[in-house]
Amino acid sequence: MSKPSVYRLVQRQAHGPGRSPLSRTARVASSLASLIPACLCSGQLFASAVADDSDLSKLNQMSLNDLMNLEVTSVSKEPQKLLQAAAAIQVITGEDIRRSGATSIPEALRLADNLQVAQINSHDWAISARGFNANLANKLLVLIDGRAVYTPLYGGVLWNVQDYLLQDIDRIEVISGPGGTLWGANAVNGVINIITRNSRDTQGDYVEAAGGKEPQDQAGARYGGQLAQDAYLRVYGKYTGRGDDLTASGASALDSSHVGRGGFRMDIGTERPDQFTVQGDAYTGSEDFGGAGEYQLSGANVLGRWTRVRSPDSSMSLQLYYDHTYLSQPYPYSAPATAYTGFPASALTDNLDTYDLDFQYHCRWGDRQGIVWGLGYRGTRELDQDASLVRFLPNELDQSLYSGFFQDEIMLARDVTLTAGSKLEHNYYTGFELEPSVRLQWNPDSRNLLWSAVSRAVRTPSRYDRDLEVPTGLINAYPPFQLPALFLAGSRNFDSEILVAYEIGYRAQLAPSLSASISTFYNDYSDLRSTTATPTTALYPYPYPVVFQNNLEGETHGFEAVATYQLLQWWRLHAGYNLLLENLRVRPGAVDSTDASNETADPKGQFALRSSMDLPRSVEWNAALRWVDALHQNNGPTGGPAVGIVPSYFELDSKLAWYPLPRLQLAIVGQNLLHDHHPEYGYPSAGREEIVRSVFGKVSWGL
């Protein structure tokens, strides 16, 4: 596992913040650079006169009015305008991604001001909303075209394998705050919904190539064609090779990565009552593991969706997908200082198969009510081949998740709407879970929205919480002392973590050139994960095993504010600020080994300022400045030896692009320009990985 590795996780849980091996990468098969046609290099393209600015009109940014009227689906599971969406939602458009110079989905998520995004190393990321961005960030649900990528192994998302050809992403909808009523368990602090473009909108060819400091080399290609009347197909491929970052001492971190992926999407009946989508993806890659071997990863998925629009007031959809993921993580020889036996070099492999079926129905009931309900089933089969250092028992596990939800939107008055609903799920570990919510919104006119919400959400146990065993390697060589067999262990009694959230928000287009939103929240958590040491005795002088329990509780509160200003017709500014205050504690009468300091790693504040300019002669210049407050990893009420600090920092990204032809882009991109290298995550040490300054060139052809 790479985000972060299980090896690092269990070391930190059992031993505290010591240095541990970090994942690295070896080369995957051949680059997709061969997909770039030779015509990109031909003199014919460059001999053409500079394109007139009007040729780029379709590339220019949407107006603020268009942005505020974007249709989003993540809040109510049906299309609604952004100014009607009663939630703390931000939308990253495909245009935003293109102008930013992002090379991966995690980089693109920096454009969402309501997320905490920290790069761990060359290929691993920590991403969360409203806190809890620690080693096991597990309270954020992520979907790609309706397919959940939340892993049941440890909970959370393996960001090193989540990617796509960014040119074909339509938008990314980011909700901060619970979404369990519609999306189910684990949508606790937020939902990220990545939506790709309909294949009808990606006709023709597109190719890109990039290279420089980071990524060292990247290439991608897509081709879209029409199969028949109202039937369209696209296929794509992408390869990314990243080099090594540095450690705090200036040495190479040996964490390069090389991943190739490809896929297709077919859409039929895009203008008919019955619409069909079939799509699939596959990837394979490897990462250097610091001399211990190669971290191998691969996966594939296929998804089918049928949507029937019976009338403007009634629609239904049926979705089915299968997803397979594989990872193999090597572990070096290990001999703990207190051990009498060591561990041989080995590898942990994880095979996961997921089958998911989802049905939902939307309808209007009279003039004042809109109803959406749905049923779902998810089955998983997971096989873990145990390493000597980390194991999950049983090593083969089948799980089933059954769910149903109902939500009713009631118009109380012409400009006041009440939305109430709940999701009921039954999972393998804790049985039934209920996740209700109530939302009230007031639209005094078409340009203003005031909303409030009360919601309950749960984070169900992962295999890490329940089935993990980390052996010590000790043997009872010196009676009468009893030596511990395990350092760290899951608990069969581990229960779901619970959140009750209170939110108030306001979104408005204050003027034709100015839009803004602010959301405030108060989150009340109970039954959070704790680590409890074994009591010591004269015959058992060891605090091991450390066992997971639900002994923490606490509150977080803060606000998120964003504003977009069209300063001039050709110059747009965007600013965002987050404030997050956390207070976690041990439940009265309970015990936690780290005094509630192991679950959070979050900045108190962060600020972003982005500038987008359309300059003369078909030139674009985009820049993004961000400030991140000091990160205390892990935050805790009393501090202590487990607290590590990432200093506050400013950082700057920039992209300068020129369009000598409407379909041809030549660009130079700079990332992390203010430092040679700097940390964004992790404990202070000479070996902590730091993110290096990156400058690379990019050429692309097509739209």
Describe the structure.
- With about 700 residues, the chain is mainly β.
- It has a single domain (about 5-700), classed as Beta Barrel (Maltoporin, Chain A).
- The protein has seven helices and 39 strands.
- The strands form six sheets. It has a 22-stranded antiparallel barrel.
- A hairpin with a 4-residue loop joins strand 10 (about 205-210) and strand 11 (about 215-230).
- It starts with 5 loop residues before the first helix and ends with a strand.
- Residues about 5-10, about 15-60, about 335-340 and about 635-640 have low confidence and may be disordered.
- End-to-end CA span: 35 Å
Structural class: mainly beta
Residues in helices, as a percent range: under 10%
Largest sheet: 22 strands, antiparallel, barrel
What fraction of residues sit in β-strands? over 45%
- What shape does the CA trace take? globular
For the CA atoms, what is the radius of gyration?
25 Å
Mean pLDDT: 86
Structural domain count = 1
Give the structure's gist in a few sentences:
The protein is mostly beta strands and 703 residues long. The relative contact order is 0.15.
